[in-house]
Request: fold
Amino acid sequence: MTASGTRESDRSLAFVGRLRRAAPLDRRDTRWLGLAVLPGVVAVAVYLATNPYPAYGGGLYAQIAAEIAANGYAPPATVPGYALPVPFAYPPLQFYVFALALDLGLGPLAVTRLLPAVAVVAGLVPAYLLGRDYTGWRAAGTATAALIALNPQVLEWHVSAGGVVRGFAFLYALTAVYTGYHVFTGDGRRALFAGAVAVALTGLTHPTYALFVVASYLVFWAGLDRSLRGIARGLAVGLGALALASPWLAWVVATHGPGVFTAAAGTHGGIGGGLAQLVESPSVYRLAPFAAAAAALAARRDAVVAGWTVAATLIFFQLRFPYAVGALAVAVAGLGVAERVTAGGWPPALSSSQRRAGAAAALVVLASAVGGAYLAAETTSTTDGTTPSFLDDESVAAAEWAAAETPEDARFLVLGDAAEWFPALSGRSIAVGPWGVEWASAGAYDRQLAAFEDASTCNSAACVESAAATVDADPDYVLVPKGRYTVRGETVVQFGTLERSFAVADGWTRAHETDGVVVYRAAGRGADG
Reply:
């Protein structure tokens, strides 16, 4: 080998060595990380096996991605197809990933069914690392990840169609929280840099998850490093993330004005939505995170993780955030129990190291069993709303019919949750629906949501017309699903009353019908298929 070749080889080896030293994992983590990821793989496999179509809505995301691709990857000012033109003020990162997938030849249904699974499994790595480093016990990291992976309150929003955005936002947020823990426990510049990047990735993916990261950092500062140095380190991460996200923020403000952010802030529960929901309609689901916080306090006097769990429960309407933090609280409680058992010398026939290993195994098995039982109970219940598919063969075929047989400027009132997917699958607009309207104003969002829910649960043509009129909608077509469908994830059943009402109503003509849907055209508009 020549001297230059030797130097190149030495540099490569040195680089590999630096990567190994920088990596937060080593050989001792292999078994525990594998056990942490396995429940996520099983949960994803069950979802894919039982959902031929992606669960929940992802049509707006697909429409945004298609507009980005069609616009040569320049951000579009607005996205067409919905009740109001949707300002493209969404954090853009995952939409560009989605657009690239579409350009590579994947269909929107395939992307929204398969890509979230990647995020769900990958997100368990920072969950494991956070549990491991916070407690100093690998088994607690595995238990934390398993409880997150198998909790339907967390899983349903990340493995479903919207997981193309939310699933990756959760991955980035957990990474940001993990690095944030090290920011406030005195690690070096590497933690600051990694934190800034992870926070920026979160902010460029989903605003609610970015708020979760901010709240987590405040809790870590208050509980781990209430000092000026801690403030300085937290600000360094925040300002670094802001600098990385500033090109997108500047574009949004220049295109839509700063009011677009405040418009969306009042929807989807808003800040403090968890407290409001707890006061208005307390339930066992809302109270469960408090039990996890109390267990962490009782077993280990851990005020940090207990306070973090309570804060997440009160701040966020979405239960996935307190349940994710609660998983760490349960792991902390498990560690406290294990410490007491092993310190007591039980069972006496084992050494202290053997007792600790047994306690670790028991914690992981118990976490997986409890999480698995909860997931199984939710997904096998006859009233399961964990991952309902908004689409079926009939609704997809109806969208294809609309694309082939109706004018390009036709506006549809689609009843039921398939409406969210309709523009992306048909190339036609919907006249009523809340999707994307939050970026216009909270009031407009509420009105569109009420009109969509009312119209989708009507039993007469006059009722549908009245609901549409509340938002000044004048659709060219009304698509009525037959039999069972969902409205905001809740099952509704039509027994033919609504379609018979349209059949005899003035001003409507049957334009298309299959076993699953019937479409009525307003008199004098469009053309029959």
Observations:
- The chain is about 65% helix and 5% strand.
